[in-house]
Design a protein that fits this description.
This protein is α+β, with helices and mostly antiparallel strands and about 280 residues long. It folds into two domains: about 5-80, Substrate Binding Domain Of Dnak, Chain:A, Domain 2 (Up-down Bundle), CATH 1.20.1270.10; about 105-275, Umud Fragment, subunit A (Ribbon), CATH 2.10.109. The protein has five helices and 14 strands. It has helices at about 5-35, 35-55, 60-75, 85-105, 240-245, and strands spanning about 105-110, 125-130, 135-140, 145, 155-160, 170-175, 180-185, 185-190, 195, 220, 225-230, 245-250, 250-265, 270. The strands form three sheets. Strands 1, 2, 5, 6, 11, 12, 13 and 14 form an eight-stranded antiparallel sheet that branches. Strands 9-8-7-10 form a four-stranded antiparallel sheet, with no helix packed on it. Strand 8 and strand 9 (about 195) form a beta hairpin. The model has no long low-confidence stretch (mean pLDDT about 85).
Length: about 280
């Protein structure tokens, strides 16, 4: 081995030894109460021995003293020696807990399976729903503990279908508690005032699916407090509050706010122009 390579090897040994000293001192400072002063003194004596070996420039002695310090540290602080399996397990558990927290309290992904919200939302659209927009709920009890806001007319919401709570529906809020809603010849009236709904479409024939064409006239109906009246934007093809009633505020999962993916099943292609669109 040339002198240059030999010198580099010695420098590497010294740097690694200095790193172990810094690591041990750092752990001692943080864990002194957990380890105990008697054991700390043993480690400190090994640190002094290793520092002396480094100062003398003796690589063989430095390696021996470094190994002694590491063994002593591992013996005194076994909690520092996590196995690879344990490290991966902890990382996975943290990731799962974080994902569950985000899904439960922050945001959740949903896919549009039907055309009831066309043309605002298309079959194959994937969207994110803000679960904290209206407040924070206790998941198991489905009870709201903090309220930030109430659903407003025009909000597009995801909720538990009143007739089968295992299913999620997405519709637009048309009226809120205390409102009187009525539909006359396709025009929605809230508290006897006509509304301007630029987002609606009517595509049914007399033999339309579910016979929803009859929903072009409805009411009048008084929305109970603590409930919302919802309809799909594709009015002739939407199974909504006109047919099964209102949605309780506690059954609302959140407000839809952005499209993150869109797949056209018929043409088998991505709708790139829709990705990133805000939902209104």
């Amino acid at each position: 081995m040339s002198e240059k390579k030999k010198q580099k090897a010695i420098e590497k040994i010294m740097k690694e030894a200095e790193f172990e000293i810094k690591k041990t001192k750092s752990v001692i400072k943080k864990k002194i109460k957990k380890v105990g002063e008697d054991k700390i003194r043993l480690l400190e004596s090994d640190i002094i021995a290793l520092e002396t070996a480094i100062a003398n420039g003796n690589p063989k002695d430095t390696l021996a003293k470094e190994e002694r310090l590491v063994r002593a540290r591992d013996r005194v602080m076994p909690f520092l020696n996590k196995s690879t399996v344990r490290e991966y397990t902890e990382a996975i558990l943290i990731a799962v807990v974080l994902a569950l927290f985000i899904r439960t309290f922050v945001v959740q992904a949903f896919k549009i399976p039907s055309g009831s919200m066309e043309n605002t939302l298309l079959v194959g659209d994937h969207l994110l729903v803000s679960k904290f927009r209206y407040g924070i709920k206790i998941p198991v009890l489905n009870k709201k503990i903090v309220t930030f806001a109430e659903p407003q007319r025009g909000d597009i919401i995801v909720f538990r279908y009143p007739e089968d709570k295992s299913k999620d529906f997405i519709k637009r809020v048309i009226a809120v508690g205390g409102d009187k809603v009525e539909v006359k010849n396709k025009i929605v009236y809230i508290n006897e005032q006509s509304t301007d709904e630029h987002y609606t479409v009517f595509r049914a024939s007399d033999t339309s699916f579910f016979g929803f064409k009859k929903g072009r006239n409805f009411g009048p109906f008084d929305v109970p407090e603590g409930e919302v009246f919802v309809m799909g934007d594709n009015r002739d093809n939407s199974h909504d509050s006109r047919f099964w009633g209102t949605v309780n505020l506690n059954d609302i999962k959140g407000k839809a706010f952005i499209l993150y993916w869109s797949w056209d099943r018929g043409k088998k292609r991505i709708r790139f122009s829709r990705i990133g669109d805000l939902i209104r």
